[in-house]
Amino acid sequence: MSLFSEEFFQGALLGLFVVATLCQMAFILTAWRWFPAAQTAKPKQYWGTHEGVSVVICARNEARNLRLFLPEILAQQYAGDWEVLVVDDDSSDETYSVLLEYQALAPRLHVLRVTEKHHPGKKQALSEGIKAARFDCILLTDADCVPTSAHWLQHMVQPLADHSGTEIVLGYGPMQDTSQGGFLENWARFETAFVATQYTTFALAGLPYMGVGRNLAFRKAIFDRVDGFSTHTHIASGDDDLLVNATATRFNTACCLHPDAFVFSSGKKTWRSWLQQKRRHLMAGVAYKPLHQMLLGMLALSHTLHFFLLFVLLGFHIGTKTALFLWLSRSILLLFLFRKSFSTLREPGLLSLFPIYDALLAVYYGAFVPITLIGKKTHSWK
To answer: What does the alpha-carbon distance between residue 18 and residue 361 come to, in Å, rounded to a whole number?
Structure first.
């Protein structure tokens, strides 16, 4: 009886590992099919949209970043009418005075100021900015972000004109590569690219579930359709992904991964600030639609189980050949996927590091995520 129980237990472990690994491989193959290849420039003479666009930015204590990056926003080349609307979200530094300086020099820049906050996070300020926008087409970015080209605005809003039913355009916001090569910087770049690969794949496969507010275009109608952020104002984060999660469908969502449409963001300088950022993102995730939570949870769990059970099986010499074969098969498929996605996302320097970061993702999903979800909630965005 004891021998049977041991064999049964070993078989169950191996079977669970096989299921988890096959789940991972199914997603990798799906991502390989749907994730687009690197895009090339579209000749300007074929650009067809000249509709009005409102670029909306929230800024809280961003005086330095506004001096660095706001001129790049204002220098966008776009044939239609457009404006830049920056909301000072109750800053305590020189943010407002810096904005007034630029407003005096740039007629298309408009400044709002929020001095009384009624909800955590930036949703109140962002909501006021969207409501004050002159145009139906809204393009979001952050004060610490800089576009990769002067055609960022044009590329991001073009899909809205190409297809009349498109209401949301998901863009990419990579972390800046400072060439310092620090572990935190490389990890943040990898995790950002991995998340972009995942949400882009889901969107192109017909299940859009999130976008990033540092590079997101949408029509104001979708904001009004769900009464803005009213259903989740109590959550400090989620001004971007929860809006997309509530309104995006397979029919109204497009992706723009042209390299001229990327928006670089300054990465966090310390592990503490990075962890705080991840906590905010994860707390928004618990408000996703049940189907999205189930699918994302299944991917995270299978990722964790793949590595955890691999070490258990190898450590106890259970199905060693089968375990190594499936691990190698998944790794090869993942290598081809990352080679494609990192090329599209202009992150080739990460490819050689993927085996290490792939394993660390399992630790992130298995340890950090559960601790965050049951731990202390984050109520601020700065």
So the answer is: 19
pLDDT tens for 54-81 read 999 999 999 999 999 999 999 999 989 9
CATH architecture label of 44-287: Alpha-Beta Complex (3.90)
Please provide the DSSP assignment of 159-208 as one string: HHHHSTT--EEE---PBP--S---HHHHHHHHHHHHHHHHHHHHHHTT--
Q: Counting runs of H as helices and runs of E as strands, what totals does the chain give?
A: 13, 9
Q: Could you give the angle at which helices 290-315 and 354-363 cross, rounded to 10 degrees? A: 110
Sheet of 109-114: strand order equals 109-114, 82-89, 53-59, 137-142, 216-219, 168-170, 253-255
Amino acid code (one letter) for 162: D
Those residues with Cβ within 8 angstroms of residue 342's Cβ, 6 or more apart along the chain or in another chain: 193, 348, 350, 351
The pLDDT confidence band at residue 1, using thresholds 50, 70 and 90, is very low
Q: What are phi and psi of 88, to 5 degrees?
A: -80, 110
Task: Specify the DSSP element, H or E, that contains 326.
Answer: helix 320-344
Cα angle 199-66-73, degrees, rounded to a multiple of 5: 60
CA 282, CA 231: separation in Å to the nearest integer? 17
- Inform me whether the pLDDT recorded for 43 exceeds 50: no
Rounded Cα–Cα distance for residues 208 and 229 (Å): 18
Instruction: Please write the tens of the pLDDT for every residue from 10-33.
Output: 899 999 999 999 999 999 999 999
Show me where the domains of the chain are located: 2-36+291-374, 44-287
